[in-house]
Structure formats: structure tokens, C-alpha cells
Amino acid sequence: MEKEIAYIKARVDVIYAAIIGDPANPNKPGLILRIDRLEQKSKLQSKFLWLISGGVIVSLSRIVITYFK
Questions:
Q1: How far is residue 44's CA from residue 52's CA, in Å, rounded to a whole number?
Q2: 31 and 17 in contact (C-beta within 8 Å)?
Q3: What is the pLDDT of residue 17?
Q4: Can you list the positions of beta strands (E) in the chain?
Q5: Is there a contact between 21 and 28 (Cβ–Cβ < 8 Å)?
Q6: In this predicted model, what pLDDT tens digit does every residue of 26-53 receive, in sequence order?
Q7: Cα-atom radius of gyration of the chain, to the nearest Å?
Q8: Taking Cα atoms as reference points, which of 1, 31, 3 lies closest to residue 16?
């Protein structure tokens, strides 16, 4: 029974380290930190896409207005 508990504890520690990350090694972030970074990157890309889209719409509007003037 003791061996089984030790085995399960070791497995839980591995899963915990994968989710949270290794506190002793900052070069090994956990899944939570990786997902947070991906979400932040996605938000930045979304803002950039809206900025580019707005610039294209304004440029096309100016071209159309100048053409029909």
C-alpha cells in the first residue's frame, strides 16, 4: 500500500509541475503560464488586425472620394 501511495504521489507531482510549472527552474513554465501568454498574444494580434483593417478602409475611402471629386 505504501508503494502505491508513493507512486500516486509521484505521478501527481509530475502533473502538478506540468500545470503550474517548475518553481526551481523558471525556464520551464507550466501550462497555465503558456496559455496566458497565448491569450495575450491573441489579443495583441486582434488589435493589430483591427488597426490594419481600419487603415485600409480609410485609405480606400480617400481614394474613392478623390476619384469622384
A1: 12
A2: no
A3: 87
A4: none
A5: yes
A6: 788 899 999 999 999 999 999 999 999 9
A7: 25
A8: 31
Amino acid found at 26:
P
pTM for this predicted structure: 0.65
Provide the grid cell at 56. 485600409
Collect all residues with Cβ–Cβ distance below 8 Å to 21 and sequence separation of at least 6: 28, 29, 30, 32, 33
C-alpha 49/C-alpha 10 separation (Å) is 45
C-alpha cell at 10: 509521484
Helix axes 2-20, 31-68, angle to 10 degrees: 20
Which residue carries 480606400 as its cell?
60
